[in-house]
Design goal:
Blueprint (H helix, E strand, L loop, with lengths): L11 H12 L1 H6 L15 H13 L3 H26 L2 H13 L1 H6 L6 H21 L2 H18 L7 H11 L4 H28 L16 H15 L1 H4 L4 H7 L12 H7 L3 H17 L4 H23 L13 H17 L4 H23 L8 H17 L9 H24 L32 H7 L6 H8 L9 E4 L1 H11 L3 E4 L11 H9 L5 E4 L4 H4 L4 H12 L2 E4 L2 E5 L3
Parallel strand pairs: 1-2
Antiparallel strand pairs: 3-5, 4-5
Length: about 600
Amino acid sequence: MWGLDRNVWANSYYSAAAMAGSEDWTAFFYGSSDPGNAITVDKPPLSLWVMSLSVRIFGLSSWSILLPQALMGVLSVYLLYRMVAKRTDPATGLLAGLFFAVTPVATVMFRYNNPDALLTLLMVGAAYATLEAIDRGKLRWLLLAGALVGAGFLTKQLQVALILPAIALAYVLFARFPVYVRVLHLGAGLLAAIVTSGWWFMIAQTADPARRPFVGGSRSNSIWELTLGYNGLDRLTGEDASHTLSGPAAGLNTKLDPGITRFLQPQFSAQFGWFLPLAIAGVGITILFLIRRHGRPEQRSFLGLSAAWFVCSATVLAMMTGIVHPYYAISTVPALSCLAAFAATYLLRHLASGLVRLVSGLVLALCLILGYVSASRSISEFPWLPLILLVAGALAIAVALLPPVKKQLRAIPLSLIGVSILLGPTIWSVNTVLSPHVGAGVVAGPSTLGIRSDHPDRTQLPPGTPLTFTAVMFGDVPSPGVLGRIKSSSPSLKWAVAVVGSETAANYQLDSSKAVLAVGGFDGTDPFPTLEQFQTMVRQGNVGSFVIQNLPPLTVQGRGESARIVRWVESSFQPEMIDGASFYRLTQ
């Protein structure tokens, strides 16, 4: 929670929706991006409900919007600790919680207002409840896991499915019931998930389209299309990128070639790769435990669920195409932390074995290589860190390979190994806390190769970044002169101003405290409003003005309804240049 307000509105897209939900109950229910209920955000509304309620209670501020996510981070670490410690020991539980807390991508996402913070908490909760169902033999815990999965679906739709194979596999393999009963129980859990999330989707889909906002991110104003398309298969196939960005702007988002090597690329490695070799070792130890039936049954079920969750989420993250944000790695971090902590404690407790010392040295060497490479890519902020990591890592490897010292002195080599593993990600996380982050492309840690995609002043974007790209990812900086005009607009207007793109609309809405119509939704490609609908809005006196600054890529190319609207406004009204923005008054 330290210094949360340095992130200001964080992702203003969701902050504006939280503001809208705090002012209007229809906007609250549907997740509208504005109090006038023109269009929703491109996600279900559960995470927005939490933020909107916080804003209703404490007022609109950076703190009221971001505090719930910080508390979700604390609760996630606590649940993970409880889940691990109960099935291993307190030391392993504390280490898992520590790994989770200092993984940079977790640090940044639990201080940000994207839905991923709530989604991660719900996934950890679902894993916790599943293991309780297995250990206690109580169906109600599996029903709770299903309800949490359903809540995850109501948070970020199909992304919660990354944990479903792990839940099903762990319950089928380790629950102490006949196989057919296990299958029936899983069916009941699935039904709980459907009920928990399905009620909202049914209401939203069957409501009269004229009486609810347009479904942002869809092409046909359909919740199901949004679920299966833009937030579903399109994320895996890359179709979401094809209708969002084009030309140079698209190139900025498609550099991450599919495959496991994606995790070694600059955009990903420092986000969550610090403990990756330990997690992979944890998968290997899990396989050994399952084959040889080592450990207690509840320990094997915990390891099996963690390994399946990690492998499933990491594989999908590695192979998905199109727009792939590094913060998507948050879905792998809880399972990665569990496996890495178990591997670390297991290896350290068995260093008397020559084979274990060899494996430990190899794992530490891989951690050193990943950490050194990640730190070397950020020498502008920490020029001294690569050398320190190299020295500490080399000493740790030597300590691991040498025969164990006397018990009285064992704390020294163990501390050295711990420092070598934790130093890099801890510095990255502290830097994340002390640095501001804004926009739709949030990243943890310092700049990578001099580039950071979420710096407020936008000076660390790649050279030659087109203004159309920044319009989508950050939104335009509100013009002071235009803000003055918007604030003085008539309170009877449904929308004080209309702009193309939700990020720009959100910036104006948050700074003016007036409803702003986001033409074309997030990236200007949504077919709402159509030109005819917008003309009707103007004739009815619902839209006070139109502002044009930097337009999204496809709008600039003249494609979509937003481009038609821009052409009509430009040909029908006289512009007034204010601080570099074209201001069109649409009402007398």
